[in-house]
Design brief:
Layout: H1 2-7, E1 22-28, H2 31-41, H3 51-56, H4 66-70, H5 72-80, E2 85-93, E3 102-115, E4 118-129, E5 133-144
Antiparallel strand pairs: 1-3, 2-5, 3-4, 4-5
Length: 155
Amino acid sequence: MLIRNLLGKNISPPCLLKVGDTLRKTRTFTNEDVIEYSKVTYDTNPLHFDSESARIAGFEDRLVHGMLVAALFPRIISSHFPGAIYVSQSLHFKLPVYIGEEIFGEVEATHVRESKNRYIAKLKTRCFKNGELLVIDGEAMAILPSLVVEQVDSS
């Protein structure tokens, strides 16, 4: 009670990661995101830049790079666990993501074990569009310095 009175807010105990916990992040990918990603990766596939090429290939419009969408996973992990080491990631691209679509990424802990004063976490990784359509499905492994889940700004 003394801490609450001095700081003017509630102090709660830290939240610790456990199996079944899910961390989420939402992002809308823009044309600028696609251009900047292409500059860094040298991926100039016309499906990302030319609507007609994308339509000829059977898509509705230009695509966001799948790996750019998948970059939500390390962002979620590193923002909640500063100092985490990303060890592995498998990805299955299920549906295309188009520029301007809101994507909901989530990381769910499926197994956590201690190892040498750190924690190895196995994580189910998924991205959805339109609230429920699975666009990426996968699994990641990360070494976490702690199980304390940092609360972060959702921006």
